[in-house]
Amino acid sequence: MLELYKAIADCDSNQRNMVATVIDGEALGQKALFSDEMLICETKESGYFSGHAETIWNMASDKDQCRKGLITLDGRRIYCDWLGQEIHLVICGAGHVSIPVIQIGLMMGCEVTVLEDRPQFADNARRAGATTVICEPFEQGLSQVEGGSNTYFVIVTRGHRYDQTCLDLIARKNHAYIGMIGSRARVAKVKETALLNGCDKAVLDQLYSPIGLNINAETPVEIGVAIMAEIIEVKNRKMRSSGYSKDILHAILKPEEKSGRKVLVTIVARKGSAPRDVGTKMLVTPEGRCIGTIGGGCMESEVLQIAFQMLHSEREKSRLFHVDMTGADAEEEGMVCGGVIDVLLEVI
Amino acid sequence: MLELYKAIADCDSNQRNMVATVIDGEALGQKALFSDEMLICETKESGYFSGHAETIWNMASDKDQCRKGLITLDGRRIYCDWLGQEIHLVICGAGHVSIPVIQIGLMMGCEVTVLEDRPQFADNARRAGATTVICEPFEQGLSQVEGGSNTYFVIVTRGHRYDQTCLDLIARKNHAYIGMIGSRARVAKVKETALLNGCDKAVLDQLYSPIGLNINAETPVEIGVAIMAEIIEVKNRKMRSSGYSKDILHAILKPEEKSGRKVLVTIVARKGSAPRDVGTKMLVTPEGRCIGTIGGGCMESEVLQIAFQMLHSEREKSRLFHVDMTGADAEEEGMVCGGVIDVLLEVI
Fold first, then answer.
1. Which of A48, A95, A127, A218 is spaced 20 to 30 Å from B68 by Cα?
2. Taking every annotated instance into account, which residue ranges of this chain make up the domain XdhC- CoxI (chains A, B) (predicted)?
């Protein structure tokens, strides 16, 4: 089982990665990791997936067959969890707008890389908590940034000639988003030059500029909120992915805790309104510590109790639990929503 | 002069407050504070405003006559600065969504009050840095919150019966914004009950719910960003106000610094694109410390040099400085924008 989570932690975020879990019948809890159509690893007891790898991959990739992450194969429901949640935010420039973007990015759990050639400003980015700060001319800095399908580039340098350098290089990298600050007129000029410099027109047409949602943002913090709101919007427009947070994987895999059993809780189905969506995960330790949340409130407490029962039972390894938040009871208990969710609990 | 800033710091944020400053001619730098049509205080040397108080108030209040904060009276240009920038954010509930709202609110310089009846959750709000946390049942908590034209209410409690309590009370308070979390169906029910409980229909029709801009936010932090983006959008839709930040007023008024001269820099006019808008302020101390920013870059350095000259001159108290960011020089210096701004520098 741990091997599988190790494979999940190690998988290449530039590939398409998916974890499939059987959520009913005898095979309840059987799991496999797929990367770019290939079956990489499955839970030992299983063997189930190797016979159906291609079928499962194809069904999971098809929006019509895979609704909200669920497919049905031979009467079994399989929850297909597309990985790739972690955003890599690459910010060119560490001026006034950059700082709130760094801060909100970190709140969201992004990896944040900042490029800035002025040492003082680079220090501001470090103080704001950026994961990596590269204090070199933008050209050299960007040669160290790889890009990828989860990389979001924010160009907020102090002047358009630096923006030009950055855009020319970034447009050639794999990316999920490129946003650039500046007035319409200046942005048009930079784009025009980028085209002459050989950048792909299709990429330039996709440039988010003026950067950020139009909320009449004025101060640097307001512009930072507008930029991050736009990035969230772009991210969530794609095939909904949830995956495993770094914190959860770390808690599962760190050596000192390997011996302690834990329960991984995943929302695998949702009807109506619920605080969190399918794919949301929470890890419960025997001491009652929770990493992540499936929505809080009484619903979460109820799930926690089951998790504790499972931690103290030797037999039960997986359970699918149905939470109904529609009735009068839920109302009385002050639950927030009116939906129904299925929660998968797995002892690890 | 300090008296005027003291009056600005003390003025009632439930009234409409405006600072008028003459920005050219012999009266350059003459200033007055108005509250609800009344002239409250003017710079001693002046006497100018008392003769024209009503006219100036009326012109400043008229969107056609007061464009971007400027009016012209007898050939003099007067910059009219509407106060009321500081947002009071009142958050009901200290659960998962509340925390990022608190954090981003603090980044924006808001005063943040959190109401929560569960001590553990109230502690989370304290740790997140909330200005005030009231740990009492919502009914009692809200009786201690006054409301006002700059108060933004965010209702994100753990259940709809608490939301109901909060909405019933908040709808009766003066406010700039009320947002409430929850599914459409549940929100409709809470609104219906609020109407039966005697709340004003017009207020309920203005309720922002589902709360937050629609960016498909999923995680608590994403929902927090969506909520703050909505609040910024609502705030900036109103008559643009800028005013004086607490930090700037504090630095002007704190006793230990009273003796030291400082320069207040204000953007009073803008054409074309510039990093910051009219009303943006920066205070420069003799040691070269800046509180606030008028946009950074070379333009700001140039303004700083003039501020230092003025600090060392006994004669010059005010100067209007014109910054042109359109030319080839600006391009060469890497300035971000292509606009023209007028900056007022005042020795205090």
1. A95
2. 261-320
Distance of CA A138 to the CA centre of its chain: 27
Place of tokens 């025997």: A286
Q: Are A251 and A285 in contact (CB under 8 A)?
A: yes
Residues A234-273: tens digit of each pLDDT: 988 765 666 788 788 888 888 665 557 899 999 988 887 6
Which member of B160, B218, B228 has the closest CB to residue A225? Answer: B228
Q: Residues B46, B52, B54, B56: is their CA dihedral positive or negative?
A: negative
- Nearest CB partner across the interface for B185, out of A237, A273, A335: A273
Alpha carbon of A84 to those of A198, A239, A242: distances in Å? 30, 10, 7
Which among B182, B211, B221 is positioned nearest to B100, based on CA atoms?
Answer: B221
Task: Sort out which chain A residues have CB atoms less than 8 A from B296's CB and list them.
Answer: 95-96, 158
Q: Tell me which amino acid residue A202 is.
A: A
A226 in B contact zone (CB under 8 Å): yes
- B115: number of CA atoms within 13 Å, CB side? 24
Q: Which DSSP helix (H) or strand (E) runs through A174?
A: none
Cβ within 8 Å of A, B 97-126? 100, 103-104, 107-109
Q: Does A213 touch chain B (CB under 8 A)?
A: yes
The tokens of A114 are what? 């900042």
Percent of chain A, pLDDT > 70?
91
Domains and CATH numbers, chain A: 1-83 (no CATH), 88-237 (3.40.50.720), 245-348 (no CATH)
In Å, how far are A159, A243, A245, A292, B336 from A106, measured between CA atoms? 25, 18, 13, 16, 26
CA atoms of B188 and A228, how far apart (whole Å): 30
- Tokens representing B64 are 């056609």
Residue positions counted in chain B:
348
Closest CA to A306 of A264, A244, A252: A264
Q: How far is CA A96 from CA B156, B231, B319, B324, B338, in A?
A: 30, 21, 26, 21, 18
Smallest Cβ distance to B159: which of A96, A218, A335?
A: A335
Summarised one tens digit per residue, pLDDT across range B162-203 is 999 999 999 999 999 999 998 888 899 999 999 999 999 999
Is residue B189 less than 8 Å (CB to CB) from chain A? Answer: no
Print burial letters for B204-214: b (CB count within 10 Å at least 16), e (below 16). beebbbbbbbe
Question: Within an 8 Å CB–CB cutoff, is residue B185 touching chain A?
Answer: yes
Residue with tokens 């909330």: B130
Strand partners, B344: B266, B320
pLDDT at B66: 82
A158 — contact with chain B (CB < 8 Å)? yes
Q: Does B294 touch chain A (CB under 8 A)?
A: no
- Which residue bears the tokens 């990367």? A35
Beta strands in A2-115 (DSSP E): 17-22, 31-35, 38-42, 70-73, 76-82, 88-92, 111-115
Q: Tell me: the pLDDT tens digits for B94-106?
A: 998 999 999 999 9
Q: Which one, of A59, A71, A3, lies nearest residue A32 by Cα?
A: A3
Mean pLDDT calculated for residue range A298-309: 89
Q: Measured between beta carbons, which residues in chain A are less than 8 angstroms from residue B182?
A: 273, 336-337
